[in-house]
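Running this now, will post back.
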Amino acid sequence: MFKRLAQVVACGLALMSAAATSAPTFTFGSFEFTASTSSATDVTTTTLFPLTSPLVPGTPVGDFALLSSLPATLMLPAGAVDFNLVGCCNWFDSNLGAFTGTGSPVQTQTTSTSATWEVVGQLTLGSAWANSTAVMPASMTWNFVQPASTSTTTVSGNFQAGTPAQVPEPATLALFGLGLAGLGAVRRRRTIN
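Update: finished.
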């Protein structure tokens, strides 16, 4: 009997260990990024920014936070961002995946000292995910800020991929709860009669 119990416990521990070390499944996540540019031209009219450093990802949210760490850097083609080109911001990491721009970049906001660009595309998941090779909708938002008092330009942004889970509205949950209460009352009435 003790031998059988030991086998059951060992089997359970093996299953728990396998579940703990298995890759997470990706559904939705985002992370911020920073980079450097040597461009000192007006960010509100410039569309080509040579990069002096690769993208540095950080602050993972959602499923990206399930990884032990994000890659140290993400490389862009030709070391530059050219918002005239579809695919201007493609990057690849064997664990994280590959981002491919699928639409023309759009300048979504400008002020006298800043510009924001939106790049829409898709993420093909890498080997870090249980659902590797799956393709998720994705986008990158780029922010370029050039304070009037300096000639430097700061680059930051956000990458997001997947579809966030829908959270039911409170009214929907309340109706569901009332329905369950009604079913319980009907059942109770039937058992009393």
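The first strand starts at residue 28 and ends at 36. More later if anyone needs it.
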